Amino acid sequence: MDNNVNSLQVVEQQASQKINQSNIKSIQIDYNSLLKYTTTCDLQKNEIDSLLKMFKRIDYNKVGFLTYHDMMDLLKEFGFQINQNCKEKIFKEIEDRNTTKLDFQTLLYIARVCKDFESKIKENEEQIQYSEFIDAFVALGGEPDASGYVHKNKIIEILSIEFDLNFDIDELLEQLEVQNESLDFETFRQLFRAENKKSIKRNSSLLSLLSHRSMTQRSTSSISTVKIRMKDFERFLDKLQQEENENIGSPSPKK
User: Fold this and answer.
1) All domains in the chain, ordered by first residue
2) Which DSSP state fits 229?
3) Of 9, 16, 133, 228, whose CA is between 20 and 30 Å from 238?
4) What is the pLDDT of residues 3-30, one digit of tens each?
C-alpha cells in the first residue's frame, strides 16, 4: 500500500482517538446557541439547516459534539465525496483551528472545506471538458480560439469513414431547432448536450473520439495511424456505463 495512504490512516486514527477522548468530558448543550456561529461559515441557509438537522439526529445524547467517524458519516450522508485528498483538507482545517472537539461550528467550517474542494474539482472538470470540445471542434474544421464553423456533413463524414459509425445528426439539430448547415462553437457544444439521456452518453463518447482524433493528428501526419473503430467506441460506452452505475449508487448532494 502507498506510504501516503498509510500515513493518512495513522493520522486519521490519531485524530479520531483524540477527538473521542475529548468528547467524553462534554456537557449537554442548547442547540439554539449553535445558530450564532452560522454567519461566518459561507454556507447557504438550506445547507446549514440540513446539517443542523443531521447533527442533532446523530448527537442523540445532546452533548453538542460528534465523534470523528460520526462526522465523516454525516458528511457523506450530506452528499460529499470524501476521498483521500478531501480528508487531507479536513485534517488541515482541524489542525489549523487547533480543535479537539467536533462541535457544530467546526462541522460548518469542515463542510465549507468539502464544498470548496468539490467546487475546484468541478471547475477543473469543466476546463478539461471545454478543452475536449475545442479539440473536437478543431478536428472538424473549426479554429483553436473557438471561431469559425464546422459543417454537419463534415461531422457525418468523419464519423462514418474514420469511425465506422452512423450518427443521426439531423435528429439532434431538430431538437436544438438549428436550421443552419454550418455550426458555430456554441451550437456545436449544444449538439453534444442533447437532453435525451441515451444521447448524452452516446454523444459524450463521440466527443471523446473526435477530441482524440484532433490530438492524434497534431502528433502524426498519417491519418491511417489514427483509425478508431467500433470496438474502441464500445469501450467508451462501457466506461461511461460503469461511471453511470457508480454515480447511481452514490448519494446526491443535498445542496
Assistant:
1) 3-121 (1.10.238.10), 140-248 (no CATH)
2) -
3) 133
4) 544 455 544 555 555 544 444 444 445 5
